[in-house]
Amino acid sequence: MNINCGKMYWLEDDNGKRFSNYYKWLSSNVFSIGEKDLINAEGENGYGFIDLQGNEVIECCYKQPVISSTDGLQGLCRVDTGLWGFVNNRGVTVIPFIYEDALPFSCELAAVKKNGRWGYINKRGEKIIDFQYRDGTCSFCNICGEERAIVRSKPYGVFPEKFFYIDKSNKKKSRDFDDYEYFDPNTGNRTILCDGKDLIIDKSGNDIKNK
User: How many CB atoms lie within 10 A of CB 178?
Assistant: First the structure.
């Protein structure tokens, strides 16, 4: 089986006979998802997946290529609505397409944007942390055993905006800071910029020392 491309892409057998629809693009990589081997495809209405028999397994309707997610869920944006939701590795919608933006799941939570604000949901689509944070908010990550997210707060139009750590119960776990820089993956320490000075906080968000 070959992937043949010119202005369009398609699948053909060893005898050169086409057995798939035409696509704008087909990946040269094959993803093993569950019991199926799939190929990333771009159709007329967006990206999706086809199998090695040329069948469209995950509808080609997303703004970005669909990838195999290690945790089984992937955030995608539909071309027709511009809204984000989450599908599983079979292309089934698990969390509806109702969000303005979304980040990948990490530490069992995903940051999602609704009505201009960011909050966090679990894999059942339940709201865990209310929509209250601004653009620049990050996914949770495990920092040497501590699950933390960097969020950005302050009402719109109020400056300066500030960042800080929260835990999964939405409890603030660090001082406010203006920006953040170097992160040490071995210790979990992070360099932050606070009122024009470089400071260092540990994996929990506690101050360590001046840089």
Answer: 14
Residue 176 host element (H or E): none
CA 52 to chain centroid: 27
Angle at 184 between CA 182 and CA 188, to 5 degrees: 115
Place of tokens 């070959």: 2
For 51-78, the DSSP string reads ETTS-EEEEEEESS-----TTSEEEEEB
Residue pLDDT, tens place only, 28-58: 888 876 677 889 999 999 999 999 999 998 8
What CA–CA distances, in Å, run from 63 to 20, 127, 158?
Answer: 22, 25, 33
Q: Which amino acid is at 167?
A: D
pLDDT average, residue stretch 194-209: 90
- pLDDT tens digit string along 176-188? 999 998 899 999 9
Cis check for the bond before 160: say yes or no (omega within 30 of 0). yes
Report DSSP state, residue 154. S
Whole-model pTM: value is 0.84
Q: What is the rounded CA–CA span in Å between residue 198 and residue 155? A: 25
